[in-house]
Design a protein that fits this description.
This protein has four helices and five strands, in the order βααβββαβα. It is globular. Strands 1-2-3-4-5 form a five-stranded mixed β-sheet, with helices on both faces. It has one domain (5-123): Aminopeptidase (3-Layer(aba) Sandwich), CATH 3.40.630.30. 26% of the residues lie in helices and 22% in strands. The chain is an alpha+beta fold and 140 residues long. It has helices spanning 15-25, 37-43, 88-102, 117-120; strands spanning 5-9, 46-52, 58-66, 72-79, 108-109.
């Protein structure tokens, strides 16, 4: 990774910069409220931001959700298109994994988008054979 980008675990960050990252990942919906970003960051076990050292602006992020004792889930890992291919995603994920492991958390999971398995495998992630990710859509 180049010296012009630094990654840190943060407890707050500019909400509009985080919204821009969520948009880059295709995860932001117009119905979402940017005013909720501070609570999202504070509610995460670890929230990592990759920032351009010259501008100070966020160019990547990721977060880990956990109770801090047992399991953890990594999600929202994204890097702005102009900064991809510089191993920033790997560096963000590695920092989140290290933060979890430092807390004694060894069961770390994520749900990868189709086609991204090759990114996560070198980081130590493998498919959970026999399990199916599910999402709640309300009672039928």
């Amino acid at each position: 990774m180049k010296d012009d980008i630094h990654i840190e675990i943060v407890r707050s960050w500019d909400a509009e910069e985080i919204v821009a990252l969520y948009r880059a990942g295709g995860w932001w919906q117009d119905s979402f409220d940017p005013a909720e970003i501070p609570a999202l960051i504070m509610g995460s076990f670890a929230f990592a931001v990759a920032a351009d050292s010259k501008s100070g602006r966020a160019v990547g992020m990721g977060r880990a959700l956990s109770d801090g004792v047992s399991d953890a889930y990594i999600q929202d890992l994204v890097v702005l298109p102009g900064y991809r291919g510089k191993h920033l995603g790997k560096a963000i994920a590695t920092q989140l994994i290290a933060r979890c492991r430092d807390a004694g958390i060894t069961w770390i999971a994520l749900i990868a988008e189709p086609g991204t398995e090759k990114f996560y495998r070198p980081l130590g992630f493998t498919p959970m054979e026999g399990y199916v990710p599910l999402i709640y859509h309300g009672e039928s």
